[in-house]
Amino acid sequence: MMTNDKIYFVANWKMFGLLNSVDRINKVINLSKKRTFKNIKIVYCPPITILSTFANKIKNKNIKLGAQNIYHIENFGSYTGNVNAKMIKDIGATYVILGHSESRKDGDNDNIINKKIQIALGEKIKVIFCIGENLIERKKKRTSVVLKKQIFNALKGIKNIKNIIFAYEPVWSIGTGKILKPKDLYHDIKNIKTIIRKKYKSNKIKILYGGSVNPKNIKDFKKVTNLSGFLIGGASQDQNKFIDIINKTFN
Ligand code: PGA
User: Fold this and answer.
1) Contact 250, 219 (CB under 8 A)
2) What SS3 class is residue 152?
3) DSSP class of residue 12?
């Protein structure tokens, strides 16, 4: 892992969790009080219904809060069933996941994701921007082309990427247990950085990996030295597993 910067552990709870689920982060809160925690950044992204409960729970703690999506309209209005960036910010979210493959499946395309990124950044919310190829694209060796398109389209008109954290999530790896070999992942991350650098001069590009990260395979992932952390779905709902992943990343 990169050692100088903080390593991110983003917990994506997806559509899981009820009010009483917040007690499932007690051990993580204890961990965040330890001195060794200074190298770690934890961001919880629970469903919108318990965002506010989470916000109270982690108040004055070393843990950040994120939403799993926002609507593509900046202002308030008659958009039944939706929530905008101002609303999640108001509750205490300082991050938002955008472009997740499950949101793309639900209708988010590059153009909409672009709008959402602009709106989030405008509200000073940090963006966790997900990209990734599906299995057919991988097999056809189109991964690089697909990622390039996702990146350039979604970042159209965006001048500064300092508040964007990229998350490489091969779609075929999400929730399946299938993962890349460390050296292949290293290569893919390197390639993504090269693509981003074609447009942005930044030397501080942060890329997380997401897809079936668990306490068993983390020892392989930690070998991938060009990563800045992980976006964790299933395993993040079990605090013992989540903590195990964090500990094993450093030991
Ligand atoms: P997973 O999900 O860890 O359950 O594979 C990752 C994600 O979808 O962000």
Assistant:
1) no
2) helix
3) E
Q: How far is CA 111 from the centre of its chain?
A: 19
Contact 67, 45 (CB under 8 A): yes
Output the pTM of the full model.
Answer: 0.97
> Does residue 7 sit in helix, strand or coil?
strand
Cα of 210 from ligand 1 centre, angstroms: 6
Please give the pLDDT value at position 177.
96
Q: Can you give the pLDDT at residue 20?
A: 95
Q: Decide if pLDDT at 198 tops 70.
A: yes
Cβ–Cβ < 8 Å for 193, 225: no
- 8 A C-beta contact, residue 68 and residue 100: yes
Task: Tell me phi and psi for residue 183, to 5 degrees.
Answer: -70, -30
**How many C-beta atoms surround the C-beta of residue 19 within 10 A?**
9
Say yes or no to pLDDT of 1 above 70.
no
CA distance 130 to 99: 5
Backbone phi, then psi, for 103, in 5-degree steps?
-75, -35
Binned at pLDDT 50, 70 and 90, residue 3 comes out as: low
Is residue 46 lining ligand 1, measured as CB closer than 6 Å?
A: no
76 alpha carbon to ligand 1 midpoint, in Å?
31
Q: What are phi and psi of 108, to 5 degrees?
A: -70, 120
> Quick check: CB of 130 below 6 Å from ligand 1?
no
Active site (catalytic) residues:
100, 169
Looking from the CA of residue 10, the nearest atom of ligand 1 is: 9
Q: What is the pLDDT of residues 107-158, one digit of tens each?
A: 999 999 999 999 999 999 999 999 999 999 999 999 999 999 999 999 999 9
